[in-house]
Amino acid sequence: MKCKLFLWLAIRNRCWTADRLARRGLDHPERCPLCDQMDEDVQHLLTTCVFARQFWPRILLPLDLITVIPGRREHSFAEWWRKVIRKVQKEHKMGVNSLIIMGA
Predict the structure, then answer these.
(1) Which residues form the domain of 86?
(2) Virtual CA dihedral for 104, 44, 62, 86, nearest 10 degrees?
(3) Contacts of 26 (CB under 8 A, 6+ apart)
(4) Pair 85, 60: CB distance under 8 Å
(5) What is the phi/psi pair of residue 20, to 5°?
(6) Which of 45, 64, 68, 103 is buried deepest, with most CB atoms within 10 A?
(7) The pLDDT of residue 70 is above 90
């Protein structure tokens, strides 16, 4: 349930990441806590961070989904997720959704 709630927030860009804390005037570290290279936001954490870019191929390559590994040009995590699901056969969509939910 926690994973689903997190993704519900992430898709709506409502996670309490540094960019959102800054908009509210709250104290926050600006850099991503994982890579310390980029400003932290949902998109960065889930698709463009170096750690995310190492993680998703390990999940998606065995499923022959190399063409949908997230890159720096993704506009949103939700858009990327929809792109993945469009590439998956109907009978595998639930399993791939579960992998993405657990991975995020």
Answers:
(1) 2-103
(2) 80
(3) none
(4) no
(5) -75, -40
(6) 45
(7) no
The number of folded domains in the chain is: 1
Long-range contacts of 56-59 (CB under 8 A, 24+ apart): 56/103, 59/99, 59/100, 59/103
Report pLDDT for 103: 86
> Tokens 């961070």 appear where?
49
CA dihedral 82, 66, 102, 73 (to 10 degrees): -60
- pLDDT band of residue 7 (cuts 50, 70, 90) is confident
DSSP result, the chain: -HHHHHHHHHHTT-S--HHHHHHTT-----B-TTTSSSB--HHIIIIISHHHHHHHHHHHGGGT-GGG---TT-S-HHHHHHHHHHHS-GGGHHHHHHHHHHH-
